[in-house]
Every structure is written in structure tokens, then in C-alpha cells.
Specification:
Elements lengths: L31 E5 L17 H15 L3 E7 L8 E5 L2 E6 L16 H14 L6 E5 L1 H14 L3 E4 L4 H7 L7 H13 L2 E4 L2 H11 L6 E3 L14 H12 L7 E5 L8 H8 L7 E5 L6 H12 L6 E4 L7 H7 L2 E3 L9 H8 L4 E4 L4 H4 L6 E4 L4 H12 L2 H11 L8 H16 L10
Parallel strand pairs: 1-2, 1-5, 2-4, 5-6, 6-7, 7-8, 9-10, 9-12, 10-11, 12-13, 13-14
Antiparallel strand pairs: 3-4
Helix pairs in contact: 1-15, 2-3, 3-5, 7-10, 8-13
Length: 440
Amino acid sequence: MPGTSHTPTPLASNGEGRWPRICESPSRDSLRVALLSYHTSPLAAIGRSRDAGGMNVYIRELARHLAAAHVQVDCFTRWTDPDLPQILPLADNARIIHIPAGPLTPVHKNDLFALAPHFVAGIECFAISNRLDYDLLHSHYWLSGVAGMSLSRRWGAPHVTMFHTLARLKQQARPEETEPPLRIEQERQIIANVDGIIVATEDERQQISRLYGLPAQAMHTIPCGVDLDRFDPAGRQTARHALANTLGIAHDVPLLLFVGRLDPLKGPDLLIRMMAILRTYAHLVILGGDEHDPERARLRQLADELGVASQVHLLDAVPQDQLPIYYRAADLLTIASHYESFGLVAVEAMACGTPVIAPAVGGLPVIVREGINGALVSQRSPLAFADRVDSLLSDPARYARLAHYARASVTRFSWPVIAAQVVEVYRDALAQPVLAVVNR
């Protein structure tokens, strides 16, 4: 019941000493897929915490567009708010299912592995009590992958996963930050046991192949999607004037934008250091977190120490439907991440006609194309970023060319196209031999 913590009661077998076989002769014309987003809800407020970002947007939009492609989608996530109903509709044929696993409150990500068996049992309870057969599991992030491995073995259903970020790749990008050995080992097991892995870029595919010895052809490269109806360039001047008025600055002052979680991995501090040496007078908007985020206080203090506090604006993260206003208002989106498996904010900004400056790390070079829709910085340093920003803002003709081509360069990431590619991965996984269902 909402407001309580419980362990689901054991479920009855089908009388043959095993769980019902999920993939056997589905009576439906369409697929029924269980999306797993254990540690964070697709409906979470983006950018407000370190566990809510591009992955949440990806899962939510994938569910919606799979449903539009006639796939029945149930997205399972841990129940953390007793005021939410267990089932929330997301679109026709798509819904969010909240599963109790531990207390109905937020739990630190590092403590969720121990609760994964409760999450798995809760999903089984829901499926059997509602007489639901799922043809395939699609997990997101390693914690969901752990749950997906268990359910796949029990149901005999194929398991496709997308990591979004891997511990060993994060450690490569920031050696000073260690990842739990448990996560590293579980990610290795997931890679060895799933029926399909979706990666967002060719770089991620090659990195996984190198680190884990998995043949590159065993993975499917499908980029993240963007809602081209929501993110478009219409009303750029109106958006610019509105944001300038809000900030209390002149309308013609160049505006740089950062969008994302206030996580050191994302590098917002580098951009503040850049502001201190930038030759062009500009303002930087950092859109992410809120007043309760301790990282915001650190960034504000840094801006004070460097004497650029009046040019740096730390604003709360906004809902997805308000993001286009900020992208349209900005002259440049600046990304300073140590690592990005893809870089969804870059695609969103370009869809709004805004060029991007980003480091040449992870999947960003797939999106940011030097001299076409933005600029790649070969070295993650404030000076290198300042040089590229100054160069673009001092050359109006070059800037205009980048802005003109920005949207056209990302139309290939439209969600209907991406969802169709994901469905093909599902079909491929379903065509493979089905694992035997484990005995009870």
C-alpha cells in the first residue's frame, strides 16, 4: 500500500514448477515491452538532481514514440512518492508503473542495489495479477540492467539494455572520482548476459568493445532522439528579449548557455573560469539545479572570486516544455563535460537554431560538426573555450552560417526515426533463441 514498505509475497508458479513463459505465442498483433527505469522516474524534474537528466527525457520520449508505433509500453520505476498513483498514463498504449521497493521515499542511488530483488518481485506481482505477458525487457542504466537480468531469466524473455553511462568510461574521464566495484562488476555481467545492447554513438560502441571484449557487431548504434516540433527556431528574437529583460541586461549582449545537472562531470565551473578570460563581453546562463543544490553555492562563490558574478546567472532547471525558450534566446550553447555518451542538449539547442561549442569527448563529435553547426574544443581548458567563443562571436558571417545550418544538421535525430530503429532491435532480439525459464 502507498506509504508503507513491504516485501511482495511469493508468487505461485504455473503448476509446472516454473514461471509463466512470456515470449511464447503472443496473442497480440503488437509487441508488449517492459521498460525498466529503476533508479529514476521518466517523469522526474529534469536537471534538479544528479539522477534526473537526459536519460529521463530519453526514456519518456522513447516510450511515447514506441506507443505511437503500436508497441504497448509499460515503464516500471521505483515508487518514491505515496501521493502518486501506481499507474500513470503517458500516452495511448504507454504508461508509468510505480513499483514499491523499500520505503516510498527517495533512496540514495548507492543503496538501491540491495533493494533490486524487491523491485523485481514487485514487477512480477504486477504482471501476474494483471495477467500481462511481456515480449521483451528494455533496461536503462546498470541498476535497471540488474533487475532486467533477473526478470529475463525468470520469464524467458529477451533483454535489451542501454547503459547511458558506464562506470569504466566515467573513470577514464575523471580518474579522481572512483566508481563502486559493485557497479563495475554488475555492468560486466549485464554486458555478458543481455540479448542486445543499444549505444548512442559509434565511439561508445568501440569503447565497450575495447573494454569488455564484446564484438562491435553485437551492439546497435542508435542515437538519442529530439522532438523537432517542440524544439524549433521560431521566435528567437522574442525569446531573446524576454530572457534579457528577466536578467536585466541589454538585448544585444551575447548570451552563452549551459543546460544540465550541476554535476562536476558536466564542468560548469570551467565555463565560469572561461568568463574571467573571455575578451568578448558576454553573459553566461547556467540552467540547472535549484537553490538547495550545494553545487550552486560553490559555483556562485567561484564567480565571486573571479570577479564575474554580475555576468553569471544561476537559474533553476525548468520543465522540458520551457527549455526551447532558453535555447532560442542564447547565442551559443556551451558544453564543458568531461564525458558525454551522446549529448542530448546539443541536439535540442541545434534544433532551435543555436550553434554549440563542446569538447571533443564521447559522442559529442557525432553531433557537433566543426565549422558546420558549431565548434569542437580539443582541450578542456578555460583558455581553449574562451578562444573558440571569442572567435565565433567576433565573426558574424561565420556565426550566421552555423546558426543557419544548425537545425538541418539534427533532423536525422527525429523521434519517429529513432523509435523505428529501436523496434528493429527488439525484432532482432526476439528472433534469437529464447532462454529457458528458470525453475522455481
